[in-house]
Amino acid sequence: MSRLGAQGVIGVTVVMRSRLIGLLVGTTMLVTACSGAATPAPTAAPTKAPVASQAAAASPTAKPKAADLAIPKPSGDLTIKIGLPSVLAFATLPIAMTVDRINSQGWKASYVEFTSTSLNTQALVQGDVQFAQAQVLDAARALQASTAGSVGWLGENNGGEFVMIAKASLADCKSLDGKRIGYQGAAAPVTVVTKNWLKACGATGQDVIISGGDNRTIAMEKDQLDATIAQMADWLLLDARAPGKFKLLDTGTTYDITGAHYWVNNAWATKNPDLAVAFFAEILKTFAMIQEDHTIVQPAIIKFIPVFTTNNPTVSLVNTYITSAAIKAWPANGGDTTKVANALTFFTGTGDLKAGLAADTLTNTTVRTKALQLVGQAK
After folding, report:
1. CA distances in angstroms from 243 to 100, 137, 139, listed in the order given
2. How far is 79 from 62, CA to CA, in rounded Å?
3. R_g of the chain computed on alpha carbons
4. Nearest to 151 by CA among 176, 135, 167, 131
């Protein structure tokens, strides 16, 4: 697997499975005899149930299983690249699952891992990748630094999954004053949010930049950090490896606006509407498949990020991401713009964004609506 630290793009192509389930409808024949009725000839063919009766036997509200959804494959070049803000992680696993499945159907899809969140959205604006998963601040920064309307919002991947991990001896926000705190990047959205949280409680930490939440938790174990921001999955792994040595500090609603979202290059989508719609629909299909059957994540974890198989029950981890009130990962209906609006309001208030951006105007409604229709989630 490759990661990029500049403008170039390196893809990773993978393969998945599909299945079909048939629906059997039984019909019943009712034969009534009465003394005055004519007896049919012995050679008469048996009476068949009318088509209308067969239709009535099936529930009109029954929906096909997510795995059976047939997303029309566009014609022509099926090359797609989607940018990730860091290495493949648990929350971004559905991207690998989607790429794996559709490549087995003739696509040429790949995901690109960037070493900086800003490089990810910069590549999206420039068209080096056609889609990107990014936090709102990164995408909004890219928009304000480029041509208006260059990228569009499509949907949510997950809500705020970040947590503040600290040594067990540290009690709260104030106790982080002067301590070594690990961050993904100096200007990353979650860093900006954390700095505001620290400022509010009067603490100033020593910034230590370490890319990758798994690398930061290893640094915690080696006593190279006193605290760090990491994703929920990284915390669960760390706590399993070193139970009782570390804990989560209460950050309230600090990280609610740090969830990941899907964005598309609008100019590219306008030129390739069928391709744009089909690819996002395939991502939503993966979300629906996971919501229906959590166990399909286990083989994907082993295949793409085996580090998460150590001391970590897969189904329990998936349940945490799906049922957590803060995270609510992988919504089959694509979520809504509420968290986008909240993030824009917050970062405009802190001065990290200029005023003027609105969640509704950022949405690429054409691609989003048509993709939702293909997976049966349109309202």
Report:
1. 35, 34, 37
2. 34
3. 25
4. 131
Q: What is the model's pLDDT at position 311?
A: 63
The pair phi, psi for residue 176, each rounded to 5°, is -85, -5
Residue 310: predicted pLDDT: 66
How far apart (Å, rounded) are the C-alpha atoms in residues 138 and 142? 6
Per-residue pLDDT at 122: 94
Residue 332 is predicted with a pLDDT of: 95
Amino acid present at 174: K
Average pLDDT across the chain, whole number: 84
Residue 202 DSSP code: T
Pairing assessment for the beta strands 246-248 and 162-167 based on DSSP bridges: antiparallel
| Residue 339 confidence (pLDDT) | 93
HSE-CB for 355 with a 13 A CA cutoff: 1
Instruction: Pick the closest to residue 66 from 111, 95, 98 (CA basis).
Output: 98
Residues constituting the chain: 379
To 10 degrees, the CA torsion angle through 319, 321, 324, 327? -160
pTM of the complete model: 0.80
Handedness of CA 280, 285, 286, 288 (dihedral sign): positive
Say if residues 199 and 177 touch (Cβ distance below 8 Å). no
> Are residues 121 and 134 in contact, defined by beta-carbon separation less than 8 angstroms?
yes
* Residue pointed to by tokens 């349940």: 319
Q: Quick one: CA dihedral 37, 42, 45, 49, positive or negative?
A: positive
β-sheet with 79-84: strand ranges across: 3-4, 108-114, 79-84, 131-134, 260-265, 151-158
Q: Which residues pair with 4 in a beta bridge?
A: 114
Residue type, 271: K
Q: How far apart are CA 244 and CA 238, in angstroms?
A: 10
Helix extents (H) in the chain: 51-57, 93-103, 117-126, 136-144, 189-201, 213-221, 232-241, 266-271, 273-292, 297-304, 314-323, 338-349, 359-362, 365-374
Distances (CA, A) of 210 to 22, 195, 217: 50, 16, 10
Q: In the structure encoding, which two tokens stand for residue 301, read together?
A: 């974890």
Pairwise CA distance, residues 11 & 107, whole Å: 13
| pLDDT score of 379 more than 80 | no
Lowest mean pLDDT among 15-24, 42-51, 274-283, 355-364: 15-24
Give the tokens for residue 53.
């009766």
